[in-house]
Amino acid sequence: MAKSIRHLVLILGDQLNMDSSALAGFDPNQDAIWMAEVMEESTHVPSSKQRSTLFLSAMRHFAQSLLDKNWAVIYARLNDANNTGTLAGELAKAIEVHKPQQLVMTAPGEWRVLQSLRGVAKQHGLPLEVRDDTHFFSTVREFAEHAKGRKQLRQEFFYRELRQKTGIQMDGKKPVGGQWNFDEDNRGSFGKQGPGMLPAPLRFEPDDITLDVMAMVKDTLPQNPGALNSFGWPVTRHQALQALDSFIQHRLPSFGLYQDAMWEGEVWLYHSHISSSLNLKLLNPREVVEAAELAYKQGHVPLPAAEGFIRQVLGWREYVRGIYWTQMPEYVERNEMQATAKLPAFYWTGNTDMACLRDAIHQTLEHGYAHHIQRLMVTGLYALLLGVAPKEVHDWYLSVYVDAVEWVELPNTLGMSQFADGGVMASKPYVASGKYIDRMSNHCKGCNFNPALATGETACPFTTLYWDYLNRHVDTLAKNPRMLMQLKNLNRLTDDARAEIASQANLIKNSH
Ligand SMILES: Cc1cc2nc3c(=O)[nH]c(=O)nc-3n(C[C@H](O)[C@H](O)[C@H](O)COP(=O)(O)OP(=O)(O)OC[C@H]3O[C@@H](n4cnc5c(N)ncnc54)[C@H](O)[C@@H]3O)c2cc1C
Ligand code: SF4
């Protein structure tokens, strides 16, 4: 390696794409790459064993592919004896040893990390060039422009704008099929007969690099949540492309219809399981959307399935990123509903009598995965109804899922699921009683509780807490026209019924 480096290119654990903007113009004769595994990233929230393994293994595989090109890579391993434990510490060390003239990076996915690396650059009097992340369809500036002057932000409008700009699923100026959104067709349940034979997900046997990382994670982070027995996530671009192809072939055709459905013990259903590959940048959202569009054009998948899936990637994913970067750093502190309760301890173990929560949490700890409705309408909903402090809920989601990176996790958790931003992200709180879970799954059939009851020994805690939530927040919620129907039903309850619900809700709250 040359004594003095022109550009030290910083590559973070979720920036594992060769076509990264940071690597544009990379000159192997003058430049070097810096990557670091550090304890802070696995402990500032206790990153689950699945998540830690995925990030670290994918980083090591990516570093290997850079080395295969004969590029200079300065790589700090988590268990190196002299590892300082922080990104800032490792970067400072690399600067002192290699004396680069300039630092270059792609904009990171977390505000905290950007501040910390900027701080190191400043301390060393070095220019840090932060380049746009070209891995997204839109820039944060485009989102800010879209948001300017709007009283309310809505995913649907940003999504339409992006479809018009990109021409994706467009027929001239009109959306393919004559409507923008087939959400109405995306809410099927499996009915009494259940999902039947489901296509097996494509999982990957850990190779030597992954096995090494797994051993290190077990050794250095034994207290972090979750298990590793079932680890099978894509850790290379090649594997991620195979996983995408398997989804398009076998699950996309039924994705639309069963997007919201749940079934006891069935982890994978018709979802894509590509969020971690997208967020680590093993996959590019453009190729993902293109593959779905092509499958529709070839008649392999129905329009509502293709549109429903494209809306998640082109719509929701881009929208939440815009929300994150335009609202931070204040956003993480927001607590509109003034929720202060602690997260129940069973979120870290799954030990609860509530069948729906038990199932969602067990699979989360085992695989680092749960689909959107499990996150929003089971674990998220229970925390919301219970009045858990949003920061605690945020820490849990950031810890346990393999796809958790703050830019996407925070708006989904704090905004969409906890309504702690007062409506920036979603137009109303996503609140429902146990009856919703009963409609969308078979969990209630095997549960000690009854989703139709709000009081009494067998009352479903979701149902009790749902009415209690509406009652507690009636003044705030009454200002929201989208809550009128639900509040109308609340008004039908007598004062005695409300008092009984409040007292049962207190018993539930005190039991956690
Ligand atoms: C409380 C909560 C926390 C969440 N935390 C994360 C997170 O940390 N990381 C993450 O990637 N997603 C998060 N999501 C969004 C969503 O639940 C996951 O993207 C999805 O479950 C991943 O599984 P999948 O790949 O099988 O997705 P699919 O259901 O197959 O959807 C396809 C893709 O669309 C994208 N997508 C779907 N919904 C969203 C959304 N709401 N926001 C952004 N992208 C979306 C994802 O990239 C996903 O891979 C969260 C949702 C909630 C309600
Ligand atoms: S009865 Fe209530 S707690 Fe039990 S599975 Fe149904 S919704 Fe969940």
Strand arrangement, major sheet: 3-2-1-4-5
CATH class of the largest domain: Mainly Alpha
Count of helical regions: 21
Report mean pLDDT, rounded to a whole number: 96
From the structure provided, what is the oligomeric state, counting identical versus distinct chains? Answer: single chain
Q: Which term fits the overall shape?
A: globular
Largest sheet: 5 strands, parallel
What is the fold-level CATH name, i.e. the topology of the largest domain? DNA Cyclobutane Dipyrimidine Photolyase, subunit A, domain 3
Class per helix and strand makeup: mainly alpha
N-C termini distance: 57 Å
Number of domains: 3
Whole-number radius of gyration? 24 Å
Number of strands: 7
Bound ions, cofactors and other small molecules, one mention each: flavin-adenine dinucleotide, iron/sulfur cluster
Strand content: 5-15%
| Uncertain segments | none
CATH architecture of the largest domain: Orthogonal Bundle
Question: Can you tell me the CATH superfamily of the largest domain?
Answer: DNA Cyclobutane Dipyrimidine Photolyase, subunit A, domain 3
- SSE arrangement, N to C: EEHHEHEHEHHEEHHHHHHHHHHHHHHH
* Helical proportion, percent range: 40-55%
